[in-house]
Design goal:
By secondary structure, this protein is α/β, with parallel strands linked by helices. Helices cover about 50% and strands about 10% of the residues. Among the domains are: about 85-150; about 170-350, Rossmann fold. Keywords: Membrane, Mitochondrion, Mitochondrion inner membrane, Protein transport, Transit peptide, Translocation, Transmembrane, Transmembrane helix, Transport.
């Protein structure tokens, strides 16, 4: 019984407060804020006094002025204006839907006209199928080829033909990533995006350009890549630049497909830090750790030494060398260790026999220095 009376009292208070709030919003909002913290009985008494005092001060108010306040909602906005804005928004929405529908009909009509008249999409058709089925198959073929064209590079040959004699064509081709191998992007609130030049980049490009055709191949956009390479390559040793539109989009990654590179793959070396970017020709790739902008980095010097050894040894197929280093996370460190072991072995043999035969020294030098055998 007590609980029932308590609920009834709460309901009564809520009704009184709601009426008070509605009455106070018609006069002044300050009154509503003041009265919200008072008791309901006192609120109703104060509202009566308030309205009586207003009626005494303004005896000229008529029924028309009271009705003029009715279009105002509890937020003080005009209901007629809100209704007009709503009607205007609905009208604009209908116009927008009309133009969207008309555009779609034009696209579909044009597509149907092309599919009906173009002989290219009629290949491999079964004449026994009814015409709507054949038209559907043509449309499916056109959509599939459209998405394949979006994933494929913009051109079939990524590089022009090699230079003919008497021009000098380097015997090997080096395809290297730019981002986080030659430069590192950094962003701050004061400067925005800036690219930090890796230590020993100039030395690396100068050493490698003597025996390699240098190609920068990156998945970044051209309008970002070209200004960076212009400031990085002062001596113009980078022969070609390939950007995002030269990659294949496979499984959410921009992949470098060197089958389109127009070069002998036995003489092509790819250097990258991302294994997903070179997964189509992993046997041609040398994956090294990513550079995150550390000062005092010496990895490019080791890479230049490795590449010069490959070219000096006149390797017929670079994939044999790269397949050995593919199993290591830090291949340049392994190469450096093989170099140290080879030098120690040569010093020991010189102490024993003085000199080595030329053929034996060359074969041992090549195997130990490159393959670690």
């Amino acid at each position: 019984m007590a609980q029932f009376l308590f609920r009834g009292f709460r309901l009564c208070n809520t009704t009184i407060l709601s009426k008070t709030a509605a009455a106070c919003c018609k006069c002044e909002r300050r009154t509503f804020k003041l009265l919200s913290n008072m008791q309901p009985s006192f609120v109703s008494l104060l509202n009566k006094k308030l309205y009586s005092s207003q009626s005494e001060k303004k005896p000229a108010e008529t029924v028309g002025t009271t009705r003029a306040l009715d279009p105002l909602d509890i937020f003080g906005e005009n209901k007629d204006e809100r209704r007009k804005e709503k009607e205007k928004a609905i009208k604009n929405l209908k116009i927008g839907f009309f133009f969207i529908g008309a555009s779609l009909m034009m696209v579909l009509g044009t597509g149907l006209y092309v599919l009906m008249d173009d002989n290219y999409y009629k290949k491999d058709e079964d004449e026994k199928d009814i015409y709507p089925v054949r038209l559907f198959n043509r449309g499916r073929l056109a959509i599939r080829e459209f998405f394949e064209s979006m994933r494929a590079p913009s051109y079939e040959k990524l590089l022009p033909d090699p230079l003919p004699y008497p021009y000098i064509q380097p015997p090997y081709t080096l395809i290297i990533e730019m981002t986080d191998l030659l430069v590192h992007p950094e962003w701050t609130y004061t400067t925005g995006w800036r690219f930090k030049k890796r230590p020993n980049v100039d030395h690396f490009l100068e050493q490698v350009s003597q025996n390699y055709e240098i190609v920068v191949f990156t998945a970044s956009n051209g309008f970002n890549v070209y200004p960076i390479l212009d400031s990085l390559d002062k001596n113009n040793v980078i022969m070609y630049r390939l950007v995002k539109n030269a990659t294949d989009y496979i499984d959410g990654h921009h992949v470098k497909n060197i089958d389109r590179i127009n070069r002998d793959l036995s003489k092509v070396i790819m250097v990258d830090w991302n294994a997903d970017s070179v997964k189509l020709q992993r046997e041609n790739a040398l994956v090294i750790p990513r550079w995150n902008g550390e000062d005092g980095d010496q990895q490019l010097i080791q890479l230049a030494e490795f590449l010069n050894v490959v070219s000096a040894s006149e390797v017929n197929d670079v994939r044999e060398v790269l397949s050995y280093y593919k199993q290591f996370d830090h291949p340049l460190e392994v190469f450096k260790e093989n170099q140290r072991k080879l030098l120690e072995m040569q010093e020991e043999q010189k102490q024993i026999s003085g000199t080595l035969p030329i053929n034996k020294a060359r074969g041992s030098w090549k195997d130990k220095y490159l393959y670690g055998k």
